[in-house]
Amino acid sequence: MPDEVEENGRLPSTLKRSPAPDLLESAPFQSPVFSSKILRMIHQVLHSGSCSYCDHQGWLGFYVCGDYQTIVLICDECETIYLSPNDKLRDVPVLNRDGMLPSGVLLSGGRWANRAEVSALGWEKYVEGEWSYQTKHNGVF
Fold first, then answer.
1. Out of 60, 86, 95, 105, which could bridge 73 as a Cys pair, Cβ 3.0 to 4.6 Å?
2. How far is CA 94 from CA 87, 102, 135, 141, in A?
3. N-term to C-term CA, the chain
4. How far apart are CA 48 and CA 20, in angstroms?
5. How far apart are CA 115 and CA 47, in angstroms?
């Protein structure tokens, strides 16, 4: 039987973040690269292994939902959601059909969780790796 972890996926109030953290606040997790008037952001995403629902085509990233309090595991390929690492271990997904969790929390407006947020829930032992991706922005955010 796997170790029990925080099941509700809610962050302590000391780690709640605003919807739009500024560049300096997120610097350890998003690195700016400036080149010819285009700002490129490199995002690092923590994951908990591959998704069994889509036959291991995607990674299950730790994601902070739109309420900026709830963290779930979400597949970057098929968007299947696991409400906790224990749900992943038991293979009990929640299918993402309407962008809302069964609790009514919206996924939209969220972002990938950072290591401090994952650790605050006691889920750091479920981090199996990370991947990076780059976005480009013209002008100011």
1. 60
2. 9, 8, 28, 33
3. 46
4. 25
5. 10
DSSP 118: H
Q: What is the Cα–Cα distance from 51 to 38, expressed in whole angstroms?
A: 34
Residues in the chain: 141
Residue 29 is predicted with a pLDDT of 46
Nearest to 63 by CA among 102, 127, 118, 16: 118
Beta strands in the chain (DSSP E): 30-35, 38-50, 59-64, 71-75, 81-82, 111-112, 129-138
Angle at 17 (CA atoms; ends 15, 20), nearest 5 degrees:
160
Residues 94-136: tens digit of each pLDDT: 876 678 888 888 888 899 999 999 999 999 999 999 877 777 7
Q: How far apart are CA 24 and CA 33, in angstroms?
A: 13
Using 50, 70 and 90 to split pLDDT, how confident is the model at 2?
A: very low
Tens of pLDDT, residues 20-55: 443 334 334 445 555 456 666 777 889 999 998 888
